[in-house]
């Protein structure tokens, strides 16, 4: 599935947040959107997902304008996990994941066997089978995040969009969630677009980076090509050095000083 972002501009009142963006998202890869606070990362994700409508430009999914699709049709193409999602009190993991089938259910009809099979598969893929009957309120932060990812999986879309899925998680749970996304990409062919704050996490777990600043794209492409000292200093205002992870061969960013 191809996602083409063409001439996208978005504004809040008189403030331009995205400025004439053009981007082709690679199919079957993990693309991380990174940049300083206020750079437009989450806004871009929300435009792609139809949560926000651009002032100008279009988002094409397999050549079709996502903003002109019916809601259920769009949901079969893209699933989104927003920042800090909330669920009704008392909901179990299984209950939550079942919401992911809304795009495939007939109105007012109960879940069919196909829906139940997809829910069970999503729970299994996210490693939550043993917790399926547990209430969300009884889970750790990392477990809750995996439950939400399972709901997005149950939606059975080719593309998953995630807005800062590691926010407020400790380092172990961050690793757990990002490892799950990598597994879903490599073993289940999911195209994933994810907003991340941590450059080293983005470098370690994604294939491609989009580096934004003030609503424009400073760099886009494979991590090893885009992560340069020049682009990082322009985007974040810091000087950096690099090391190489001996196991993966990927770059590790080492901040040295803030640019005055």
UniProtKB/TrEMBL annotation:
Q: Which GO terms describe its molecular function?
A: ATP binding
Gene3D superfamilies, per database record: P-loop containing nucleotide triphosphate hydrolases
Read off the PANTHER family from this record.
IRON(3+)-HYDROXAMATE IMPORT ATP-BINDING PROTEIN FHUC (PTHR42771)
Q: What is its main location?
A: membrane
**InterPro entries cross-referenced by the UniProt entry:** AAA+_ATPase, ABC_transporter-like_ATP-bd, ABC_transporter-like_CS, P-loop_NTPase, Siderophore_ABC-ATPase
Q: Where in the cell is it found?
A: Cell membrane
The record's keywords, sorted A to Z, are: ATP-binding, Cell membrane, Ion transport, Iron, Iron transport, Membrane, Nucleotide-binding, Transport
Family annotation (SUPFAM superfamilies): P-loop containing nucleoside triphosphate hydrolases
The membrane topology noted for this protein in its Swiss-Prot or TrEMBL record is:
Peripheral membrane protein
This one is known as: ABC transporter ATP-binding protein
Sequence similarity: Belongs to the ABC transporter superfamily.
Which Pfam families does this entry report, sorted A to Z? ABC_tran (PF00005)
* Domain ABC transporter span(s) in chain numbering: 3-239
């Amino acid at each position: 599935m191809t996602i083409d972002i063409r001439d996208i501009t978005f504004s809040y009142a008189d403030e331009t947040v995205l400025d004439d963006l053009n981007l082709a998202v690679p199919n079957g890869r993990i693309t991380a959107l990174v940049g300083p606070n206020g750079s437009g990362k989450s806004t871009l994700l929300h435009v792609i997902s139809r949560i926000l409508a651009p002032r100008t430009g279009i988002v094409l999914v397999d050549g079709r304008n996502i903003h002109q699709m019916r809601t259920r049709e769009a949901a079969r193409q893209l699933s989104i996990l927003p920042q800090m999602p909330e669920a009704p009190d008392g909901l179990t993991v299984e209950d939550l994941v079942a919401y992911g089938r809304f795009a495939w259910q007939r109105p007012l009809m109960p879940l069919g066997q196909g829906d139940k099979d997809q829910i069970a598969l999503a729970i299994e893929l996210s490693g939550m089978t043993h917790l399926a009957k547990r209430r969300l309120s009884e889970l750790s932060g990392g477990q809750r995040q995996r439950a939400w990812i399972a709901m997005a999986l149950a939606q059975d879309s080719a593309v998953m969009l995630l807005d800062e899925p590691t926010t407020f998680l400790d380092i172990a749970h961050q690793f757990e969630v990002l490892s799950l996304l990598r597994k879903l990409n490599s073993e289940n062919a999911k195209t994933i677009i994810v907003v991340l704050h941590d450059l080293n996490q983005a470098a370690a777990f994604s294939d491609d980076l989009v580096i934004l600043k003030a609503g424009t794209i400073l760099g886009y492409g494979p991590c090893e090509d885009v992560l340069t000292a020049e682009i990082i200093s322009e985007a974040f205002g810091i000087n950096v050095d690099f090391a190489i992870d001996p196991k993966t061969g990927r770059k590790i960013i080492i901040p040295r000083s803030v640019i005055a």
